[in-house]
Design brief:
The complex is a heterodimer.
Chain A: H1 5-18, H2 41-55, H3 66-69, H4 72-85
Helix pairs in contact in A: 1-2, 1-4
Chain B: H1 5-15, E1 20-24, E2 27-30, H2 31-47, E3 55-58, H3 64-75, E4 79-82, H4 89-98, E5 103-107, H5 111-117, E6 126-130, E7 137-138, E8 141-145, E9 166-172, E10 180-185, H6 186-199, E11 207-210, H7 218-229, E12 232-235, H8 244-253, E13 258-261, H9 263-271, E14 285-288, H10 295-304, E15 309-314, E16 323-327, E17 341-342, E18 346-351, E19 364-370, E20 376-377, H11 381-387, E21 388-394, E22 397-410, E23 416-421, E24 425-428, E25 431-434, H12 435-443, E26 448-458, E27 462-471, H13 479-487, E28 498-501, H14 515-524
Parallel strand pairs in B: 3-4, 3-5, 5-6, 6-8, 11-12, 13-14, 14-15, 27-28
Antiparallel strand pairs in B: 1-2, 7-8, 9-10, 10-20, 15-16, 16-17, 18-19, 19-22, 21-22, 22-23, 24-25, 26-27
The chains are: A mainly alpha, B alpha/beta.
């Protein structure tokens, strides 16, 4: 666990809803979810919906790109940017 | 006319050595380079004992090496067996053993998963590892690093292959709980490739997209129609494949001229990928298959690329494409798009349960015979005998035909119309899923007493899988445990997205599980 509550919430969601076949302890904030094939198109749609509802933001489709979704840290950074855009 | 798939490559290499054969962001291979690299791999395979009639498994992401691998396998006289690179190791192990691959081509960074897949023994003599580095052995057998191929001669080994030899084996979901390998010969594949390349006038200047994974038969058009013409194939880079906005931009920036994709891929590119804001003027041909194309989506695509040709291709893996329908004007209403008329030297028959032709215009089951029809399921003579049966094609004349399980009817204009399935097969993002295979996986968990899997229609991904489970006496498994259990043996798209626990399963008056009631219940109470 990190001290970043956004990252923690995203990690918890991913582990519970998408990466249920993974060991809870081994998802580092900078682990590449895309290169490891952990996020497919449906997983990405679900993650975007979760972030929008959980953090009260909107994420435009054009922002849903590999660079913005490739790790827990990248997704948390996207959430922070969208909060500021709010 | 070429009679072997890898001869298409050799001929294009002779005619257009410098033209691009495969293009990815990581690099490109000219026809000369693809021909040379695949010959080197074939030499290496042959040196390790791969012979005509063998199988060579492929378990690696889309890459230049993956394209080299499938041609290398065929040049060594073997059939290539592409295995979902996202499949869990247990499924890789099952498929590799099921068709006893003589060789496996994978990637250096997958060494750990390979050991897991073959913990109980490995069928292959050796494993080739794309990328750099990697172990010296996999599952106790030699591992050949990609760098070793440079020492091999760049000419194909002298292996006699005939067009009746198996070119590839594609594993699809099996209703009895295990995937089954559909075997297709060079002749089967070329009946489709020759037809498609001619019908859509694929030319050296074309740039073909490749969306489908190599274990999905749509990829045979992308790879081999391109090789047929000396055109370039652009596999969608794995890094962006799941991002509709990135894929749409990539295809437009590369000015791809021929697209072949499932309707759900196209729906995501349009609905989520901003395709409607991009310049589609390079698009010349748009083909779709694998699912029913919704009329509103097709109308929108035809508006965006009025210059392009559009065609609906139909056929299960067992027949590749066997019927097609060209759409010449946007559909005026939302009536289902026909699957059209037979092509590729195939014939279609609409039969009732007693295998008699139905009256004209009546619904019946579609049977297909002809040039593209598979040889059978690898190592499963009983399943093959059920799928391929002699039917009367003219008075006193019978021939083997493939029973599709699809219910169709013939319209007055002769076009076939798809009405539905006879069984419990569904499509999830274009992938064929036998609900029985998912149910069998659930039943293998000791905490499951009864399980039923059903599909809830979804506008973006075709269908979402859900399960209803009655726990075994004294057991209380959680949804996450069961999903985890399924994900150990099934590809991700086959794992139910939610699991509802019930005290008993709803049944119809005849005692069958009421899947329709379940779909209704489940929508109201999502788990």
């Amino acid at each position: 666990m990190t001290a970043n509550p956004t990252e923690d919430a995203i990690r918890r969601f991913l582990l519970e809803e998408i990466l249920y076949d993974r060991d809870l302890r081994d998802l580092a904030a900078d682990e590449n979810l895309i290169e490891r094939g952990l996020l497919d198109s449906l997983g990405i749609l679900k993650t975007v919906t979760f972030c929008e509802e959980q953090f009260g933001i909107t994420i435009p489709d054009a922002e849903v790109l590999p660079d913005h979704m490739e790790s827990v840290r990248a997704i948390a950074a996207l959430v922070e940017r969208r909060r500021l855009a709010g | 006319m070429s009679t072997l798939l890898h001869r298409l490559l050799a001929e294009s290499a002779a005619r257009h050595p410098e033209r691009d054969a495969v293009v990815l962001p990581e690099g490109r291979l000219s026809y000369a380079a693809l021909d040379a690299e695949s010959s080197r791999l074939a030499r290496s395979l042959a040196a390790h004992g791969v012979r005509r009639g063998d199988r060579v498994g492929l378990w690696l992401p889309k890459s230049l090496e993956a394209v080299v691998a499938l041609y290398g396998a065929m040049k060594a006289g073997a059939a290539y067996v592409p295995i979902d690179p996202a499949a869990p190791p247990a499924r890789l192990g099952f498929i590799a053993r099921d068709c006893s691959v003589a060789a496996l081509i994978s990637a250096a960074d997958r060494a750990g998963a390979l050991e897991q897949a073959f913990a109980e023994g490995a069928p292959m003599r050796a494993t080739w590892l794309a990328g750099s580095g990697g172990p010296l052995q996999v599952a106790g057998r030699p591992a050949v690093p990609w760098s070793a191929l440079a020492a091999e001669p760049a000419t194909a080994p002298d292996v006699a292959v005939v067009d009746g030899d198996i070119a590839y084996v594609l594993y699809t979901s099996g209703s009895t709980g295990e995937p089954k390998g559909v075997t297709l010969t060079h002749r089967n594949a070329l009946a489709f490739v020759d037809w498609a390349a001619a019908t859509f006038a694929i030319a050296p200047g074309d740039r073909l997209s490749n969306h489908a994974p190599f274990h999905f038969d749509l990829s045979t058009f992308d790879l081999f129609a391109a090789a047929h013409a000396g055109a370039a194939v652009y596999p969608v880079p794995p890094r962006i494949a799941a991002f509709p906005a990135a894929v749409a931009r990539y295809m437009v920036e590369q000015r791809l001229t021929v697209w072949y994709a499932t309707p759900s891929t196209l729906a995501l590119m349009l609905g989520r990928g901003g395709l409607d804001a991009l310049d589609l003027s390079a698009l010349r041909v748009l083909l779709f298959a694998g699912e029913v194309m919704p009329a509103p989506l097709l109308r929108r695509l035809m508006q965006l690329a009025p210059q392009a040709r559009f065609a609906n291709l139909y056929g299960p893996t067992e027949t590749n494409v066997c019927t097609w329908h060209e759409v010449t004007a946007p559909p005026a209403d939302d009536a289902p798009l026909p699957i059209g008329k037979p092509c590729c030297n195939d014939e279609a028959f609409i039969l009732d349960d007693a295998m008699r032709p139905v009256p004209e215009g009546e619904p019946g089951e579609l049977w297909v015979r002809g040039a593209t029809v598979m040889q059978g399921y690898w190592g499963r003579p009983e399943r093959t005998a059920l799928a391929l049966q002699p039917i009367e094609i003219a008075p006193g004349l019978s021939d083997l035909a493939y029973r599709t399980g699809d219910v169709v009817r013939r319209r007055p204009d002769g076009d076939l119309e798809f009405l539905g399935r006879r069984d419990h097969q569904v499509k999830v993002r274009g992938y064929r899923v036998e609900l029985g295979e998912v149910e069998a996986a659930l039943h293998r968990h000791p905490g499951v007493g009864e399980a039923v899997v059903f599909a809830v229609p979804d506008p973006e991904v075709g269908a979402r899988l859900r399960a209803a489970v009655v726990a075994a006496t004294g057991a209380a498994p959680t949804a996450a445990e069961l999903q985890q259990h399924c994900a150990a043996t099934l590809p991700r798209y086959m794992v139910p997205e939610s699991i509802d626990f019930m005290s008993h399963l709803p049944r119809t008056s005849s005692g069958k599980i009421d899947r329709r009631a379940l779909a209704g219940v489940s929508r109201e109470n999502p788990a």
